[in-house]
Fold each of these.
Amino acid sequence: MSTSTRRPTRQQSAVIERLGEAEEFVSAQDLHARLRESGAKVGLATVYRTLTGLAAAGEIDMIRTDEGEAVYRRCSTGHHHHLVCRDCGRTVEIEGPAVERWADAVAAEHGYRDVSHTLEIFGTCRSCAS
C-alpha cells in the first residue's frame, strides 16, 4: 500500500499521523495502543497492514529489535542510518559517508554492483546512561 498511489483510508491516515509523532521506533502493538488511547477506532490488523505496506513502499523505516520484533519510524527522506538507544528507544538519524565508501569498496572488490545496505547502531543514550 503506497500512499502515493491510493488515497489512504481514515484509519490508515490515523496510523500515519500517529507514527509521524513518534521520535522513536515503535511496534505495531505500541502504535495501536497509542491510537486507542487517543480515541481512534483502528484495528490492530489495519495497523499491521498499513505499516507493512508503507515499509514495503519505502515510505517508513523498519528495523528488528534484538528480540526480532519489527519496529517502525517515519524518517526523513534520503539514505541515512540510525543510532538507537536500547533502553528508551530514542533514535537519531545519522549520515555515514565512511560507511558508504566502505560498502562501495567491499562490493567492488567482490564484483557486486547496484548494492544497497542498512545500518543501525544500538547503544545507550546519554539520558539513560546517567
Amino acid sequence: MNNDDHKAYHRMLNAGGSMWELDAPSEPVHPVFARAAQAVPNAETLTTGSGARTEPLPQDFLPEGVYIEWLQQHYGIPPAFTLEQLPDFKLYWLETGEARKAWQNKFKNHVIYQWKRKQSEREQNPHRTTAEKLTDTSWSDSLDI
C-alpha cells in the first residue's frame, strides 16, 4: 500500500462516526487485515507443523524402557526412582487435562528435574537425626560472649 492509498484508507475510516460504528469497508482493504483473515485456518484443519497431534495424557501411560535406560546411563538415575515419579506425574497431568505431543519426553524431563532437586536437598541437609538437629549448637561457635 503506497502513501496515497494509506491516506485514502484513513480518510475513509475517519469520514464519520467512531471507529466501532463503521461498517467494514469493501474497498480499499487494509493489507495487514487482509493477510490476517487469510492466515486464520478453520479449527477443523488446524494441525501442528510436524503432523504430530497433541493429546491429553493417556490414563494407562507408562514410560518406555528406552527412556528408563537412558536416564540411568546419562544421569545415573536408578530405574526404581524413575518409576516412583510416575504417580505424581500422572496425577498432575491427568488433573490438568492439558494436551501435549511428547509425553515420554515430558516424563523424562520431570524425572531429571526431581532427581536434581533430590540431590540438591541431600547436599543442603546432610543426614542427621532429629536429636542431632535439635541439639546443634554450631551456630554459636562464631559468637564471642
Amino acid sequence: MRPFATLVAAAALSLTACAGPAIAAEEPVNAPAATRVAKEAKGLKTAIFAGGCFWGVEGVFSHVKGVTSAVSGYHGGSAATAQYDTIVSGGTAHAEAVRITYDPAVVRYDQLLRIFFSVVADPTLKNRQGPDVGTQYRAALVPVNAEQAAVAKAYLAQMGKSGVWKAPIVTRIEAYKVFYPAEAYHQDFMLKNPKHGYIMRWDAPKVAALKAMFPTFYRAAFLKDAG
C-alpha cells in the first residue's frame, strides 16, 4: 500500500487544473531582444516569474544555462492560503510562480524575459495560460530589485510596440511580497513525470522550442533543484 502522503499527492494531481483539455500546444513566438539591457552586478541573482501552471515554467528555466535553481511556488497571497488545494479554487491572490536563481554573467534578466515570452507565457492572455483558467494562472513579472523593475517595465512597453503580438499585452508587473515554495511533489515535476499527459502536450514543446530558438542558452540536462 502506498503511504498516505503519496496518495494525497496523487489525488491532488488528479484534480489539478494543470491537466486541462488535451488540445494543441501553443506556438512559440520570437520575442524581440530587449533594448534596455539589464545592468547587474556580479553574483547570483533571484527572479520570479508567473506564467500559468508552474510545471512548465520551472521545466523551461531548468534547461537554461546560468540558472542555478528553479523552485515552483506561490506568490501574491498570504501564508494561510499558500497550499495547492487552496489556490486552485482561485480567489487567494496567489499566482503559481517559479523563483529562479541565475548568474547574470551567463544569462541576464532581460534575456530571461525574452526566453519567458518566447517559449513560456502568452502575454496577451488575462488570468489564463493554455488550458488553465483562473487568476492563479495569470502571467506576471515579479521584480525583486530596482534594476529588474526598470528592465521589466521597459520590456513590456517594447513588446507592446513591437507588432509581434496582435492582441494587447496584458501581463503586468507585480510588487514582490513573499514567495512560498510549493509542495514537494510539484518540484522537478517535468523531470519526475516526463510521460504525464499535460507535460507531453504542453510543456515538452516549450523545452523543444527553447532548444531550437535559444541554442546558446539551452542546457540539455534538467537542473534538479527543489530549492
Amino acid sequence: MQRQAKVQVKVWGEYACFTRPEFKVERISYPVMTPSAARGILEAIFWKPEFRYEIRQIGILSLGGQQAILRNELKNKQGKKPILIENDRAQRTSLILKNVAYWVVADIVLTGRAVDPVAKYRDQFNRRIERGQYYHTPYLGTREFAANFSPINEKDVVQPIDMDIGTMLFDLAFIEDKSRKEMEFLRHDETGTRVVAGFAKPIFFEAKVENGWMHIPKERYQQLYVLEGQDALRVD
C-alpha cells in the first residue's frame, strides 16, 4: 500500500509574523514562512491522527514587505485565575510581514494508525481546499493574522528570488518525559490518543531560498520522529 501522497496549496494574507525564537522580548519575523507554520496551516484545514504532514518546499509568490507595529500583549499565560489586564499588559514592538503569499508543497505520510489508503486523505484534503473548508481558522504565524487559501492555478508564479536566510526553526519535537513535566500535550499513536507530560525541543535547519523555492531537508523529519519516539511509515 502506498504510504505517502503529495498535496499543495496557495496561502496568503495581509499580515504575517513567523517569530524568530532568538529574540526574547520583541517579535521579529523571519523573512519567509517557516515549515512549522506551513504545517500548522495544513492541519487547520484537514487533520487526522492517521497521518502527518511533511513540508517539502515553500515557494514565494509574494515576498511582501516589513512593517513595525506596537501591540498590547499579556505578560502571563491565562490560567484558572482571572487576569487583570491593567496589571499584566505590556506594550511590545513587532516587526511583521505585510501582503505575503506562498505556495506550499507537502507529503501526507501515513502513521501506524492508518488503515485507509493515503489517496483517501489526499482527496479529502483537495476537496476541502476547493470548497474553502477548514477545521479551525488557519493563520500566518500568530492567531490574529488569518490566512486565506485556495488551490494552485496557472496564474500563480513563484518569484525568482535567491536568499540565504541562515538558521531557521524547522519544528518543535514534543518529547514525553516524566522527569521534565514542563507541559502537557496529546500523543497520537497505535494505542490511541492520550495526554502525556514532557517538554518541547526546537529543531533548526539552514534555510536558503533558490529561484523562489525553499526546500526542507527530509532528514529533519526523521530526527523529529526519533525524538518523539514515534515512527511515521514513510517511503523515501
